[in-house]
Design goal:
The structure is a homodimer of 161-residue chains. The first copy, chain A, is of the alpha+beta class. Chain A has a single domain, classed as Arc Repressor Mutant, subunit A (Orthogonal Bundle), CATH 1.10.10. In chain A, 40% of the residues lie in helices and 19% in strands. The first copy, chain A, is built from 5 helices and 5 strands. In chain A, the strands form 2 sheets. Chain A has a 3-stranded mixed β-sheet, with helices on one face. Chain A has a two-stranded antiparallel ribbon with strand order 1-2. In chain A, helix 2 packs across helix 4 and helix 3 crosses helix 4. The relative contact order of chain A is 0.18. The N terminus of chain A is likely disordered. Chains A and B meet through strand 3, helix 5 and strand 5 of A and strand 3, helix 5 and strand 5 of B. Bound molecules: zinc ion (4 copies). The site of one zinc ion (ZN) has 8 residues of chain B, from loops. The site of one zinc ion (ZN) has 8 residues of chain A, from loops. The structure holds a DNA duplex (30 and 30 nucleotides).
Chain lengths: 161, 161
Amino acid sequence: MTDHAHAFCCPDHSGAAPAEAILAQAEARARARGARLTPVRRRTLEILLEAHGALGAYDVLEKLAAEGYGTQPPVAYRALNFLVEHGLAHRIRRLNAFTACTHPGEDHRAAFLICAQCNSVTEATAPELSRALHAAARTAGFTIECSTIEALGRCSACTPA
Amino acid sequence: MTDHAHAFCCPDHSGAAPAEAILAQAEARARARGARLTPVRRRTLEILLEAHGALGAYDVLEKLAAEGYGTQPPVAYRALNFLVEHGLAHRIRRLNAFTACTHPGEDHRAAFLICAQCNSVTEATAPELSRALHAAARTAGFTIECSTIEALGRCSACTPA
DNA sequence: GCCTTGACTGTTATGATATAACAACAGATA
DNA sequence: TATCTGTTGTTATATCATAACAGTCAAGGC
Ligand SMILES: [Zn+2]
Ligand SMILES: [Zn+2]
Ligand SMILES: [Zn+2]
Ligand SMILES: [Zn+2]
């Protein structure tokens, strides 16, 4: 499990309310792009939303399998990749894991803040950051297609006051 | 092979000269930190420096093994992790690969520009970028310990004029 | 001198992550 | 109906990474 059991660690998951709103947004976004949020895909997104922190593909697979979906790795990877391609989830490379996008619909270039203590992953929208990266790339004559920004450290809940 | 054979693709490797300078810097830096740049470790760094683009651990292992060093994965991973820990190499997470640091000695937080066409990896020092990331984190009450910034796209050599 | 210690290198074995290739099916379309 | 496309599922395999243990060697204490 890439997950963890700690309570009240993830600011974004302190209430269950936003999950439904995010699912509705996701549904709308998928439809708008001509993509189908099929049962496995939707359930995969729900699983990510239910999780505190990011989940590994095999963690997701375990849950899907237990619910009667396919039992083999491609089932999870396909659903996860679909979600990532459509901006409904993000891949956290440092963790070899995935997390639901906390604000789908917006066209965002986010940075991920990974808490080394409670494993929570916070998605920080940072337009300035994106701008700085593009500027640095331009200086090198490099054209960015996509980027990954991840930081490891302590979240606010895990930082002693 | 994570490597590639394309000629004149990597601006940083167009001449062989800098490699020796970097090795000398690396040696100095290691000694200054009380670390030993042993034969395997040094050779591993050389292998990374000789490579265009980043190399996977098993690519490095293959070369080490061919030269009489150990033949098993831990040999490569240990040397690579040593180099990363001492700032002499970097891990490129998107590629599951490693690249030599092109300017060891400086205490830098770099961004990596990965060319999707020629596989070259350019290390861009970007103080503003680092500053923006720390600012974004601070807003979220997050304290950064270390960070990863990687961009995928086209390098200058692979961009049609 | 000789023994202990700690860092280093090598091994075997295993674990964790990810994809290729193929078969079956369902809804859309002509 | 026949066909096409996208989706799901499977088996098998590839790729990346680490745990645990054994042998080597040089430095420092006795
Ligand atoms: Zn997002
Ligand atoms: Zn935390
Ligand atoms: Zn560097
Ligand atoms: Zn290129």
